[in-house]
Amino acid sequence: MRILANDGLDNKAIDIFKEKNFEIDTNHYEIEDLKKVIVDYDILIVRSATKVKKDLIDAAKGSKLKLIIRAGVGLDNIDVKYANSNDITVKNTPNSSSNSVAELVLGHMFGLARHIVLSNLTMRQGQWNKSKYTGIELSGKTLGIIGFGRIGKALAGKASALGMNIVYYDRFKNENESYTFMSLNELLVNSDFITLHVSATDRPLIGKEEIDMMKNGVVIINTARGGVIDEEALLNGLNENKVGGAGIDVFEEEPSLNAELINHPKVSVTPHIGAATFEAQERIGEEVVEIVLDFYDNLANIAS
Ligand code: NAD
């Protein structure tokens, strides 16, 4: 079996594939080249960089490509329905990165609460703004979690251990005795920090109307997907001092060209690195190996 890991893969997973005599190619092909070579592979593994849309699937039609694996959670870079309708299975590795994303959220929250990003920037410019950077504690503040799935729940445990009061909203009300479920509007009105953990949305879940409902000085974190929050509305909220800070890992366009947002003094930005830890990548590699071996076993069973 030939595997193409077009956006790279953890070294341990690569070694396992080699040990098991799979042929694994870790070259990166840009889309036009990928369309030409895709027919030579049984399995395609991608992260978020490679877009597996209709044109690429059309190029693979009728070939031996039967499995696409998203080494990560969000499937928004893959046209899953179209792949499935062409007899190509699509899988992701949903369990591996929750802890890393939850920790990054806390990183942004601490950074904003204590002006760590601005302190770094201004001290490197020779400034000593001690009196300007009085911050707030996270302890005792209300954290509103929108989207209470794997990452939302992992974060709730950590933030609760820090003394935060956790409220959450999800389109499916999942009972949780430890934390308080609220409607979206109730959460917006009551939270000091708001963090988004829903899957990609067709239109922003948080726009001007929602920001207007929030507490003055609210801190908003988005590590879910760009477009879940309206960047223009967020910028206006920051400029009007309605929003006290924003931590953003995902953008409407990536790499982001929104210089005003990226350079805003009340914003802490990271370039979509929620799952970019050695631990998460190793776990993702393990999940990918499991998926491939299951797939291979199923094929062998069908053949025998
Ligand atoms: P999950 O499926 O376990 O949880 C998502 C939750 O959001 C579910 O409970 C679902 O019911 C809820 N939800 C979805 N759409 C909603 C909506 N419109 N309104 C209310 N609730 C809604 O997913 P997860 O593993 O917790 O991941 C959450 C998000 O994090 C995904 O968007 C994923 O792409 C993103 N993510 C980002 C990174 C990163 O690098 N920044 C890494 C991993 C995951």
Strand residue percentage: 15-25%
Quickly give the structural class.
alpha/beta
For the record, the CATH class of the largest domain is Alpha Beta
Q: What is the overall number of helices?
A: 12
At the fourth CATH level, what is the homologous superfamily of the largest domain? NAD(P)-binding Rossmann-like Domain
Number of domains: 2
Distance between the termini: 17 Å
The dominant shape is: elongated
Describe this structure in words.
This protein is of the alpha/beta class and 304 residues long. The chain folds into 2 domains: 2-94 and 278-303, 3-Layer(aba) Sandwich (Rossmann fold); 98-269, Rossmann fold. The chain contains 12 helices and 12 strands. The strands form 2 sheets. The protein has a 7-stranded parallel β-sheet with strand order 8-7-6-9-10-11-12, sandwiched between helices. It has a 5-stranded parallel β-sheet with strand order 2-1-3-4-5. Strand 3 (43-46), helix 3 and strand 4 (67-70) form a beta-alpha-beta unit. Helix 1 runs parallel beside helix 12 (278-303) and helix 5 crosses helix 7 (150-161). The chain is elongated, with a radius of gyration of 22 Å. The model has no long low-confidence stretch (mean pLDDT 96). Bound molecules: nicotinamide-adenine-dinucleotide. Residues 72-74, 94, 97-98, 101, 147-152, 170-172, 197-201, 205, 223-225, 249-250, 272, 274-275 line the site of nicotinamide-adenine-dinucleotide.
